[in-house]
Amino acid sequence: MARKKKTKTRPFDAAKYLNSREAVEAYMEEALASGDPAFVAQALGTVARARGMTGIAKKAGLSRESLYKTLSKEGNPEFGSVMRVIAALGLKLSVTAAQTRH
């Protein structure tokens, strides 16, 4: 019986593809559209990794370790921390009215 060749896989890392402003905007828009606060925080962490976690942490006034922990799946960041990270990433948060059904 012939042995099947095993295929090696690697975990998907979105940070590798966030190499343009447009890619970051689309990624964050989808994260925000999910309505899941943990996913939004994790997405911010992914963008921060793509841009360089150490520099983003410094700009946000956080330690690198604190930033990793805050923006992990298990993190529960304070809104002030989220706003500092958003600013450090060169992003801004905006709001539009949701479509309502009558």
Would you kindly provide a written description of the structure presented here, covering whatever features stand out?
It is a single chain. The chain is an all-alpha fold. It has a domain at 19-88. The chain contains five helices and no strands. The protein is globular and about 60 Å long.
Structure, briefly:
The protein is mostly helical and 102 residues long. The protein has helices spanning 21-34, 37-51, 53-60, 64-70, 79-88. The chain has a domain at 19-88.
Give me the secondary-structure topology:
Layout: H1 21-34, H2 37-51, H3 53-60, H4 64-70, H5 79-88
Helix pairs in contact: 1-2, 2-3, 3-4, 3-5
Main sheet overview: none
**Amount of helix:** 40-55%
Query: What is the mean pLDDT?
Result: 90
Class derived from helix and strand content: mainly alpha
Q: Mind telling me the C-alpha Rg? A: 17 Å
Number of E strands: 0
What proportion strand? under 5%
Q: N-to-C terminal Cα separation, in Å?
A: 64 Å
The string of secondary-structure elements, in order, is: HHHHH
Instruction: Please count the helical segments.
Output: 5
* Low confidence ranges: none
Shape: globular
Keywords:
5 helices, mainly alpha, 102 residues, 53% helix, single chain
